[in-house]
Amino acid sequence: MTSDDDEPFRISVIIPAINEEDSIALVIGDLPLEKLDRVIVVDNGSTDDTVERAQQSGAIVVREDRRGYGSACLAGIAALPEATDIVVFLDGDYSDHPEEIVDILAPIQSDAADMVIGSRMNARCEPGAMLPQATFGNRLAVFLIRLFFGQRYTDLGPFRAIRKSSLDQLEMEDTNFGWTVEMQIKAVRHGLRITEVPVRYRKRVGKSKITGTINGTIRAGYKILYTIFRYGLWKR
Ligand SMILES: Nc1nc2c(ncn2[C@@H]2O[C@H](COP(=O)(O)OP(=O)(O)OP(=O)(O)O)[C@@H](O)[C@H]2O)c(=O)[nH]1
Ligand SMILES: [Mg+2]
Prior knowledge:
The protein is α/β, with parallel strands linked by helices. It contains 8 helices and 7 strands, in the order βαβαβαβαβαβααβα.
């Protein structure tokens, strides 16, 4: 793992988590901690043992009072070490396979990409792990992104890596479910080199906060579509 000047890449991981006590240690435990500068779990007011288990597993826990997935990611960014080369985002529910971080990082480390999205749209995804509404929503969203912005994505997967300097350029602002799609749209607009790598995905441990609830699905679906139309039609 070397960068241009032969220094190792300084990599940090941001994990938004709320009430993930059954999974958070599994997620952190499957990360190659020796290769990472910092693992940041952003807690939005968990009422279970998420915070303690994350700390025991070697993560730094940041608390964010403003609810929302995007708010948590923004708080995680604010807690990155000053010198960071690559930022990885990962969910705390153990749906992703954290050890696949090496595949997510590889295109950036070889200077083939600035942003890498882990795509769950492949045969290795555990049946039933992607709920039908998530699959449908993703398909619709990537179709619209292609229509408006000309980029062929296959997924809005949460497991992703981006060069820190590129992330700074994007000036991310969404505080909830528009986070992933905002990043992907802005990446196109800023001319980032974008790559997808196939990742595995399994049924989550613990209780769903977003896609597995009717309320969450409607709010997330609405916000994702609104974000695409907003950037596609009027927001520069
Ligand atoms: N900090 C923080 N984390 C959140 C919030 N909402 C969701 N999360 C976390 O974000 C990740 C994604 O949420 P999930 O509930 O897995 O959403 P999903 O993947 O769409 O739905 P499932 O298919 O049920 O897993 C998990 O690690 C959650 O704990 C929030 O408001 N704040
Ligand atoms: Mg999930």
